[in-house]
Amino acid sequence: MESGIFFSDYRSDMALRRMPLQKVRTGLLLVGLVVFPFLATPYWLNLANQIAIATIGAIGLNILVGYTGQISLGQGAFMAVGAYGSGLLTVRLDVPFYFSIPAAALITAVAGLVVGLPSLRLKGLYLAVATLAAQQIVEFVVTHWDGLTGGTEALVVPAPELFGARMNTDGRFYWILVVVALAVALFAANLFRSRVGRAWVAIRDQDIAASAIGVNVFGYKLLAFATSSFLVGLSGALLAHYRSIVTWERFTIEVSISYLAMIIIGGLGTISGSFFGASLIVLLPAMINTLGRSLQDTAPWAATVLPYVQQGVFGLVIILFLVLEPEGLAKLWRNVKDYFRVWPFSY
Amino acid sequence: MGSDVFLQLTVSGLSNGMVYALVAVGFVVIFKASDVINFAQGEFLLFGAYLAFAFIAQFGLPWSLGVLATLLTAAMIGLIVERLVLRPLIGEPVISMIMVTIGLSSLLRAVVNGIWGVRPKAFPNFIPSGEVEFLGAIVGIDRLLVIAIAAILLTVLTLFFRHTRDGIAMRAIADDQQAALSMGISIKRVLAVAWAMAAITAAVAGIMLANTVGVSHDIIFIGLRVFPVVILGGLDSVPGAIVGGGVIGLLESYTAGYTTSGLELIVPYIVLILVLMVRPYGLFGKEIIERV
Q1: Alpha-carbon distance B58 to B81, whole Å?
Q2: Is residue A300 part of a domain?
Q3: How confident is the model at residue A202 (pLDDT cuts 50, 70, 90)?
Q4: Cα–Cα separations (whole angstroms), residue A9 to A12, A19, A189, A195
């Protein structure tokens, strides 16, 4: 139990993990991540990989929505740019994936800058509608530009190779995803403590006040769009190589919505929230699926209503979180931590 | 391509446009009363179509009773949604409002699909479906009737906003919420009326769609078409929704008729972006948008 926090030098005061308990938790998390693939079944590995990709995308979206306060319905479009970018670079130009993925993320960042341009004049609802239009237009381009993307046909991406090993199993791809996801989380955590991150928060909280204290509002908004799209494109590109197949159905407006749901349910403007939300949105349909299959013998009709149950629960979870706990899972987690920090003297 | 083709395209474009306008009016009413953008408008439409299908085709009610029952049920759903979902969120940030209606749309869609499945249903036409010669072109009667019904309904709505107590209260709240409150207008009542009206107009549009294109899941995509319509017309303007609906409907129809590339799918969104860049408050909206 702690009775107070005293730091005697700036280094320990500025550290990302300051308290002993935090260090213990981080250590446990890292050990867990290393041990996990040796214990998990392929089913759980697959889910873990999906969560890792979703976490990267959700952190990206959180930069834009949670930290800078710019609502985007174009997540699916950005992921499509990343996925097709990296896929096409690999298939057409034989670029190895460790070059094509960052390149695709950069391309997406540029696309993000273009979509961010209307934020010069628009905010709130209007910007959300503008990104909705961008989503529809990108979807149209992807499905109709047959010469580049293959239109509605799937683009097959060969399994990536690293150090002579083919990364074609969940167990092998897990390591790539975990390293990238941790790096992204660390980058974001430090970014939000920097000048740039604080400028974004200032814009979110009160843009006029932000410009009054000398924040270049438009410049930082564009930077938020670019950084966010870079990470979202990264997650799209990873998805392309992980699935080794790219189809436009994976990048529709539904995807934008489920990513928004992740950060809302997880908690806007928190990195742990991005992870919690991504986990919940990935695990929820899987759990309902398992439940439905276990009911198959007693209630054969369960299988037919399964997709609707998934969809209904998805909507219900969003509504319940917004009405009952608008700060999301991150807040719940914080409550748990606060409770146990001074346990058993919690008053 | 003669003038008869042009006329046919105009009629079908206008009839689609009027359906858009009806959906858009519901959208505008909610936005005026509460500054909420309702992403579930397409699902209200879907609900309307399937309710009409249930009452008329499944329960065998005569169509007049069936339509009445549909409208009443739709209004009930609107009221329930407002009371349970929207009212606890009054005063929350924009993103919460957007997300809660998105969650709602997912929930409503699941309910509709769970009850009626996703396969298209045949709907017994109660609007006569023959064809007539109209100014030298052959057009469907149902299309013309859709235009007529929508025109009547939209006129009634415009009159409602001009002359009835609730209509004026709604405009007062849209204009200045605090002033309206201090004049004794009940925001709760107005919000409830707004959601009920949005559900009813969407149900009417749903019934008309069921009649012209059939009852199917694809109706939902019309919900997304509403955005270009309301942005073009102005988010808070009923006449704007009507004009916007007509313009977008015609534009789609002409692009579909005179080009072959499927461009009609994105032309509305291109218009949307252009409008946002040049005149974000739309043709008839109030110029309150903040410059950033």
Answers
A1: 25
A2: no
A3: very high
A4: 6, 14, 21, 22
Residues of B in contact with A132 (CB under 8 A): 224, 227, 269
Distance separating alpha carbons of residues A307 and A309, to the nearest angstrom: 5
Is the CATH number 1.20.120 carried by domain B3-117+128-278?
Answer: no
Contact between B159 and B171 (Cβ < 8 Å): no
A83-97, A312-326, A329-343, B123-137, range with the lowest pLDDT: B123-137
- Contact partners, residue A119, CB within 8 Å, separation at least 6: A70, A127, A218, A221, A222, A225, B292
- pLDDT at residue B292, rounded to an integer: 46
Nearest to B280 among A122, A128, A137 (CB): A122
Is any Cβ of chain B less than 8 angstroms from the Cβ of A323?
Answer: yes
- Number of neighbouring beta carbons within 10 Å of residue A296: 12
Tell me whether residues A308 and B110 touch, CB distance under 8 A.
yes
pLDDT single digits (tens) A136-154: 888 888 888 877 777 777 7
For residue A332, count CB atoms less than 10 angstroms from its CB and return exposed for 0-12, middle for 13-18, buried for 19 or more: middle
Does position A226 have pLDDT exceeding 90, yes or no? yes
What values do phi and psi take at B139, rounded to 5? -130, 155
CB A157 within 8 A of CB A90: yes
Measure the CA–CA gap between B7 and B21, rounded to whole angstroms.
Answer: 20
Report the chain A residue with the minimal C-alpha distance to residue B35. A125
Q: Contacts of residue B95 in chain A, CB cutoff 8 Å? A: 65, 69, 71, 264, 268
Check residues B65 and B288 and name the one with the higher pLDDT.
B65
A282 located within any domain: no
Domain ranges of chain B: 3-117+128-278
Count of domains observed in chain A = 1
**How far B242 CA lies from chain A's nearest CA (Å)?**
19
Contact at 8 Å (CB) between B33 and B164?
no
The parent domain of residue A212 ranges over 18-252
Tell me the shortest Cα–Cα distance from B78 to chain A, in angstroms: 16
